[in-house]
Amino acid sequence: MALMNLKLKICGMKEPDNIRQVIKYNPDYLGFIFYPGSPRYAGGDIEELSVLNISSSIQKVGVFVNEDPEVVRQIASKMSLDMVQLHGNETATDCIEFRRSGLKVIKVFSVGEHFEFKIMEPYVEHVDYFLFDTKGKYYGGNSMPFDWEIIEKYPFRIPFFLGGGIGIENIDLIPQIKNSSLFALDANSMLEVSPGMKDPGKVKTFREKFDSINI
Rounded CA gap, 32 and 85, in Å? Predict the structure, then answer.
């Protein structure tokens, strides 16, 4: 069964020329990681990234991990971010404050062999989206999927992004997920030649496969 109106996010972008290549394939969201511990850290190129000509139809998402809220707001202003993706131990109160400042909020939860949805309850009224990623060594970009059957039990109405090892090899399996709150796919490491550098050929093929299941 085809999925209707599924959105696409390409995350872990940091090289201006590579970004220009990727936006040719019209993702709905581009993710920029502002966590210094990430090999995809975009903060070193923020001056150049902030002046890139990116269509307003592509929303810019800043990824943060336990960052000082004022730093988040400064980067959001500099980069004209549409959304913040919170990948650490940020509280529901943090989410409230970011939304008050005009930013949409994605709160990330990492999934291992088991997952208790009740830990998400404090956030339900205070975020725009959730994102499920694979629990691993890094805050995202671990290059492996989790068991997608887990999210079939997702009990909330808040739409969610699905991340964690999504690539050309497994995108055809996405229609098997039976949860109407699935909103978008978040692709990153499986489309790379090196951390932060996407392979345009892989992005093209991924986009074509995405479109084929998204009719």
Answer: 10
Report the relative pairing of strands 197-198 and 192-194 from DSSP bridges: antiparallel
Per-residue pLDDT, 45: 84
Cα–Cα distance for residue pair 211/208, rounded to 1 Å: 5
Angle 189-76-38 from CA coordinates, rounded to 5°: 30
Residue among 115, 94, 119 nearest 105 (CA): 94
- Expressed in angstroms, the distance from the first to the final Cα of the chain is 10
pLDDT at 5: 79
Cβ contact 132:164 at 8 Å: yes
Alpha-carbon distance values, 201 to 28, 47, 137, 212, 215 (Å): 18, 28, 27, 17, 22
pLDDT for 175 beyond 60: yes
Strands 182-187 and 7-10: parallel
Q: How far is residue 34 CA from its own chain's centroid?
A: 13
Number of H helices, E strands in the chain: 5, 10
Residue 127 · residue 106 · CB < 8 Å: yes
